[in-house]
Design a protein that fits this description.
Number of helices: 5
Distance between the termini: 30 Å
Structural class: mainly alpha
Strand content: under 5%
Radius of gyration: 14 Å
Length: 88
Amino acid sequence: DEHQEYTKKYPDQFRYDYAVSREQKNAAGQKMYIQTKMAEFAEDLWELMQSPKTHIYMCGLKGMESGMEECFSPLAEKNGMVWKEFAK
């Protein structure tokens, strides 16, 4: 798939991951959701989100937003920001 091709071609500029709740389990043996996967890399993602060149694409239900807020609010606060404002 093209994502794997981009990862090979641009290893320092492109990264992708996925979470499929019907197929994957998290470390606790529960269904893997995107917010769980993002929490694994929260510090790295937060750092990347500070760059205007970073693009993050997530596909899923609007209900995921609370999981994203739970994941990134502490990092935003630590940096003097409010996650809900930053995420707009």
